[in-house]
Specification:
By secondary structure, the protein is α/β, with parallel strands linked by helices. It has 14 helices and twelve strands. Bound molecules: adenosine-5'-triphosphate, iron/sulfur cluster and magnesium ion. It is a peripheral membrane protein.
Length: about 375
């Protein structure tokens, strides 16, 4: 039996569409973002590919330091910011609506930012200016891309604040960010991000700092707005539970790479990668006692400077010793198609994965 038949599918280095000419609305191909540091080259993103169409939501999930934020900053052209970003090395392709951004003029990317793509950050205070009213900031964000009088832009700001659920938007438009509660600030930032009707919206841990009830409200809001505006949405989180209801597809990142990607139902009900199993086991469950809820994946994330050869999850993987034919530990698992639009990067044979999932993992979830 060949390695290929053992794993049940042909190896592909990346899940790009059958036709290299067909480009999804957002089409990221073999993206690498490396930062030279005194300690060595930090390979924050190391060969990431994915596609996203308009009207679809992709959840990017992974532990702290797996490269989620760097991926989104790179799409928006913000990865060079700060002293540490100056010497960044970036390669691959990012196609947005047919335009390639990695090789594009930074001014062109800046023009697209805010107009065609916008970002919601975890901490609105860091994204909003403390000395300007919320309304003024939305007005300015609008007028950068639209040649309209302030009055028109202000009307748009009030409409949007109303749309994102800010009470008395006519009055609150003149408030400063610190006069808003955390949830209201997050709503205001969503309004600011949406002011130019962006076709791609990236929300990086949009609810992490909020309490559970407000979290649910903000996720509902993002889902409603996505339906209304038909934009493509990326939601970044370390918690699979956050994207369970809202995402169409999920991409699981580990050590700067994608280890599993697929439609949300497949990731929840037929996940194929041991790290995804670990993430599912660490999800909060309302039907369990608090103490039983979180079973974090044991061990720590890999160093992105000295990424081990072979599977980066190997040191933490409970199934590293399951026999894998003549595949050696130093061989890096590439993404393989394991179902319709479902890819995973693990050397284990399909029958072993299916058996372990059904017999060992499911009973514990
Ligand atoms: N400008 C930079 N220079 C050097 N290393 C960087 C830089 N930006 C990010 N990194 C490193 O890249 C890795 C990935 O960072 P990133 O912020 O993308 O992680 P993340 O998955 O978003 O984590 P978190 O869940 O904590 O937000 C980290 O090890 C981080 O230290
Ligand atoms: S390739 Fe091996 S070490 Fe990596 S996830 Fe699969 S079983 Fe675990
Ligand atoms: Mg992050």
């Amino acid at each position: 039996m060949t390695d290929q038949t053992k794993t049940g599918a042909a190896a592909v280095s990346e899940p790009v569409p059958a036709s290299a000419d067909h480009k999804a609305f957002l089409d990221v191909r073999d993206l690498r973002v490396h930062f030279p540091t005194d300690d060595g080259l930090v390979k924050s993103v190391d060969g990431l590919s994915f596609q996203l169409e308009k009207g679809q939501t992709l959840g990017i999930v992974g532990e702290s330091g797996s490269g989620k934020s760097v991926t989104s900053l790179a799409i928006l052209g913000l990865h060079r910011l700060g002293a540490r970003g100056k010497n960044v090395q970036m390669s691959g392709e990012i196609w947005l609506d047919g335009k390639e951004l990695v090789g594009a003029d930074p001014d062109e990317v800046r023009r697209l930012r805010g107009r065609e793509m916008a970002m919601i950050f975890q901490d609105p205070l860091s994204a909003m200016h403390p000395y300007y009213t919320v309304g003024n900031q939305i007005v300015e964000a609008y007028r950068v891309h639209h040649d309209v009088p302030k009055k028109t832009a202000r009307k748009r700001a009030v409409e949007l604040l109303d749309r994102v659920g800010i009470p008395e938007p006519n009055k609150r438009v003149d408030s400063y960010p610190h006069e808003f509660s955390g949830g209201m600030r997050q709503r205001a930032m969503i309004a600011m991000a949406l002011v130019n009707n962006p076709e791609l919206l990236i929300a990086d841990e949009p609810t992490t700092a909020l309490d559970v009830t407000v979290q649910a409200q903000i996720l509902d809001l993002i889902r409603d707005l996505q339906k209304e505006f038909g934009s493509a949405v990326i939601i970044i989180t370390h918690d699979l539970g956050v994207v369970a209801e809202i995402a169409d597809d999920i991409l699981v990142m580990y050590g700067g790479r994608c280890v599993e990607r697929g439609p949300v139902d497949r990731i929840f009900y037929e996940p194929q990668h041991p790290y995804t199993w670990g993430l599912l086991g660490s999800m909060p469950r309302i039907d369990r006692e608090q103490t039983d809820r979180l079973i974090p994946v044991k061990g720590s994330p890999p160093s992105l400077i000295n990424v081990p050869s072979g599977c980066a999850f190997n040191p933490r993987c409970p199934y590293a010793d399951v026999p894998k034919g003549n595949i050696t530990r130093t061989e890096r698992p590439e993404l393989r198609e394991v179902g319709s639009r479902h890819f995973t990067a693990c050397h284990m044979a399909q029958e072993d994965r299916t058996r372990i999932w059904n017999e060992e993992i499911v009973p514990k979830l």
